């Protein structure tokens, strides 16, 4: 905190300089036209970087004199109140899962902002809230409303990730609190030597929390939703995999273990996902829960009827507003524990397993980590984003997300700025059964764990050791002073996020070519430059997705869809 | 830790002096003869205090030269290994719930200690383990075995309490971790504003953990087992009480809340306790679980059949080795949440409740706090007890518990010593139905929350405010450096434990009377002394339980029986 305080004073004591970068595009060129049509006024805005004007004299940027602003959402006033530095968002703001779904709601927001004569509206949240922020920004611009809309990336799930956003506020805290508890349970497992603990972690459709907690606490086994979807593992495959692990451990005399699952796992299992889809369609058609089983397709009905009663009841719950199942209510950990127990009994009966009886205890860590006192990292990050949001508004920008990059380095090296919300949007094209593909609205979509990323690679590399050798690690509780108080998530530290740094580097290379190959240079130099640049351009055109002719992303091709 | 290190160096750099106090008795004079008969060799030993010989020249005590000792149980070597300072007992020792139940087990221990030629055996645990330690000490003495047995008070439950033992190692950590999680849930409740969280906490038959966590985190409502037993509240009474609270809060527009329950609650509810007793007798007689309901008495069968299926299954589990129900497996929180929901629906139907629908989420915090990295207080306390155990063994003492008193003060003022295990024993006399009373074996019994104590008083005093005003408090995670790292449990700090200090004071008063009233003093002085002392003696005789003629403790009269 001391470091951040110095940094803050530096920011507050000087004038902040707003520098504009290049105009932005969207991640998938195929989506560009469509998104531009939906957001004509806010599409294609440039990137923004903040520079302290003590460090650099004002060039052609806008100089910010920190005028007083009227802003809705107290988060933006945070920087001036250090007594509330350690309050989490739940303490100050409360929470809601409501989504803006109708034109009336947008207009109500517009009227409120105009009536209150607000300079800015800061929207704090994850993918859904920031998609809403983008919609509000466009509508406000269209209505020539003076209120500018800025988004801030805050989500426990860690699933708001893109070139500009390296981490979400809250993710560090959630992972640390959960890792503390998982580690305690690992110690308990090793001490009691008689139980398998099945722990389900929050994360909605993505498994970031589960991956990070695994890297911090080294449980024996982890099953990520992204792995299951990518390998199309069935419930039976997963059960068998766990049973094989239990059996291998029993052969070494070990009858305990800790297994982590993400709450989104249930939707990643292909046959369960399909069953859920059928149930949701029937619920939408107002079929009563008692009659649903009879109206399912034969295979879905067979799967449904094979489930234990508690899971049946949970699968029949109405879906969330985003059409996903009520993941926090579906006790996948209990389902798997029960399936494993049954399978181990079968193996015992037919003599393939000769070890002791399998015993399990199930946990869902959904509520006890939320509302925690935030970690130093999350406080620092939220504080910096709050500042950024203020400066984006002061510069009169609309439809931006406040960003801080280079987060894995020391706070003094963090880079603050803003990125247009529209540059984070994609369009989902889903094949529903055999019908025509449906094209979704432009949205900021949740991003799942990258199975080619370094964090997942680290887990994979250690999986066998963690499974057999009980290398449990206990990071302990979150610390605010002394050793460990500056720690960051392992995922943030191992991944190579430096997108903004690379953008800068690319710009400097382009500049160098331009300055070293000016009219008057030798023919040889010019020829070399042209030939080398032709090579660069060819590589880029080969990499362009338009070149490969991919028009649709089937469900299993992109982790963002899970 | 810095403080303790200084204290340790002081201890290690000097010779520790062992001073003997008065011979001890047992808490209840009625038990004395019986306990003396069971423990003829170890009964009535004197209290022991340790004094640093740098502070005081050796008087008539035993001077300890710190000889090398052979001791079983690595905990006693702890003080010399600061790298393992922060490892909890689960890390180093593992755990077991097994109890010594047969003469064969005692003899096996005796043989092992003799074969290994041990100077000492340190037994680490709660009431059961220390009762076992007392039994081993007597048996070893009888067999003229050279191994001395020392107990150390370690228990999450905080139920090993008496004149000599102010706190149990582990209790501080468990309460801090649970309070952190409860507080997070309180914040979540207040933020979401739509759920009642029912949280069940560990503690076996006593509610110390629940009381301490309530004092730390201020949930809306707490139901202690000791209150329920003392007021003979039925399941219906408890449900009604919670419903009234829900209704009062709804009238203020509040539809959220946090309610804590101890796992022992289920055994404190009179009719459920009686039902469990009937079930356990039938299980003991090998009646299969399917047939139990039919063989219960009519009222017990009616109660049993009124329960939801999940609770029925859990009530039918075999009891623990100490005859108590498998408390960690019985989901009382779900039972109560369900009963409250049903009652609120009835109130809605008959129009007495007009608020929104009651929604609940249930939690059991049983496993995620155990195995935690211990708090500074627990490390310091365990460290000091480990030292004490060593010095008791070095002084050749047998059948003692290592003690540290004055714990609520600074570490530099802690007083180390030992108290005979037999001086902590009581005998339970229980009236089972209408038959003859059964007399138990002398044991160190768990002590419940003292409903006349200051800690409970503090809770009671704030109960109404906590219920209505959402004064949630978040102590945050355990800290090892900086603010809060020296904190101790509130129960320890508000209670007035200074038994050893008062014993000292009494001795000094007696000494003063003796020195100021010597032969040769005036008749007036002598008369005054005799008359004043007669008054003291009369008061003490009136207070003696033998004088009141109480021969049996009915179940509801003593919290130790719950």
The computed structural class of chain A is: alpha/beta
Under CATH, the topology of the largest domain in chain A can be stated as Rossmann fold
Give me the number of helical elements of chain A. 21
Strand order of the largest sheet of chain A: 3-1-2-12-11-6-5-4
Overall tally of domains of chain A? 3
Distance between the termini of chain A: 37 Å
Rg of chain A over CA atoms, rounded to whole Å, is: 26 Å
Note the quaternary state here.
Answer: homodimer
Average pLDDT rating of chain A: 85
Reported CATH architecture of the largest domain in chain A: 3-Layer(aba) Sandwich
Largest interface: A-B, 40 and 39 residues
Top-tier CATH class of the largest domain in chain A: Alpha Beta
CATH superfamily of the largest domain in chain A, by name, is Phosphofructokinase domain
Question: How is the biggest beta sheet of chain A arranged?
Answer: 8 strands, mixed
Low-confidence sequence ranges of chain A: 1-10, 55-65, 74-84, 547-562
What sort of overall outline of chain A do the alpha carbons produce when their principal axes are compared? globular
Strand coverage percent of chain A: 5-15%
Helix proportion range of chain A:
40-55%
Q: Could you give the count of β-strands of chain A?
A: 14
């Amino acid at each position: 905190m001391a470091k951040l305080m110095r940094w803050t004073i530096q920011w507050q004591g000087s004038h902040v300089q707003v520098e504009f970068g290049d105009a932005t595009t969207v991640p998938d060129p195929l989506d560009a036209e469509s998104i531009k049509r939906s957001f004509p006024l806010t599409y294609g805005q440039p990137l923004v970087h903040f520079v302290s004007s003590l460090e650099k004299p004002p060039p052609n940027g806008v100089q910010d004199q920190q005028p007083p602003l009227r802003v809705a959402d107290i988060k933006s006033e945070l920087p001036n109140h250090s007594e509330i530095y350690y309050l989490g968002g739940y303490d100050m703001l409360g929470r809601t899962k409501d989504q803006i779904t109708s034109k009336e709601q947008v207009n109500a927001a517009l009227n409120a902002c105009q009536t209150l004569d607000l300079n800015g509206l800061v929207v704090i949240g994850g993918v859904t809230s920031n998609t809403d922020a983008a919609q509000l920004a466009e509508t406000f611009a269209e209505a020539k409303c003076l209120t500018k809309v800025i988004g801030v990336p805050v989500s426990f799930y860690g699933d708001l990730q893109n070139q500009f956003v390296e981490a979400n506020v809250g993710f560090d805290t959630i992972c640390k609190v959960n890792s503390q508890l998982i580690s305690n349970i690992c110690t308990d497992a090793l001490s009691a030597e008689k139980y398998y603990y099945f722990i389900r972690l929050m994360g909605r459709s993505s498994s970031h929390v589960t991956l990070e907690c695994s890297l911090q606490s080294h449980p024996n086994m982890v099953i990520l939703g992204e792995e299951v979807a990518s390998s199309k593992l069935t419930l039976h495959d997963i059960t068998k995999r766990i049973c094989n692990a239990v059996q291998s451990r029993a052969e070494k005399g070990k009858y305990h273990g800790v297994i982590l699952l993400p709450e989104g796992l249930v939707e990643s299992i292909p046959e369960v996902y399909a069953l859920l889809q059928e149930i949701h369609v029937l619920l939408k058609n107002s079929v009563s829960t008692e009659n649903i089983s009879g109206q399912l397709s034969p295979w879905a009905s067979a799967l449904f009827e094979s489930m234990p009663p508690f899971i049946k009841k949970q699968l029949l719950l109405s879906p969330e507003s985003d059409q996903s199942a009520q993941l926090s209510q579906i006790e996948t950990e209990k389902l798997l524990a029960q399936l494993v127990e049954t399978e181990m009994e079968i193996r015992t009966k037919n003599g393939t397993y000769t070890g002791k009886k399998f015993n399990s205890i199930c946990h869902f860590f959904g509520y006890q980590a939320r509302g925690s006192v935030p970690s130093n990292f999350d406080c620092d990050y939220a504080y910096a984003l709050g500042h950024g949001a203020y400066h984006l508004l002061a510069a009169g920008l609309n439809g931006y997300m406040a960003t801080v990059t280079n987060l894995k380095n020391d706070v003094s090296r963090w880079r603050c700025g803003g990125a247009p919300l529209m540059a984070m949007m994609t369009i989902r094209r889903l094949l529903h059964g055999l019908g025509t593909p449906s094209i979704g609205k432009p949205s900021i979509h949740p991003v799942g764990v990258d199975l080619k990323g370094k964090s997942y690679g680290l887990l994979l590399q250690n999986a066998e050791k963690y499974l057999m050798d009980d290398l449990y690690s206990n990071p302990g509780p979150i610390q605010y002073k002394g050793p460990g108080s500056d720690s960051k998530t392992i995922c943030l530290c191992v991944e190579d996020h430096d997108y903004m740094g690379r953008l800068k580097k690319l710009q400097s290379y382009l500049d160098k070519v331009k300055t070293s190959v000016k009219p008057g240079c030798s023919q040889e130099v010019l020829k070399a430059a042209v030939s080398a640049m032709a090579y660069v351009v060819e590589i880029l055109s080969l990499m362009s997705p338009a070149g490969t002719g991919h028009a649709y992303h089937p469900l299993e091709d992109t982790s963002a869809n899970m």
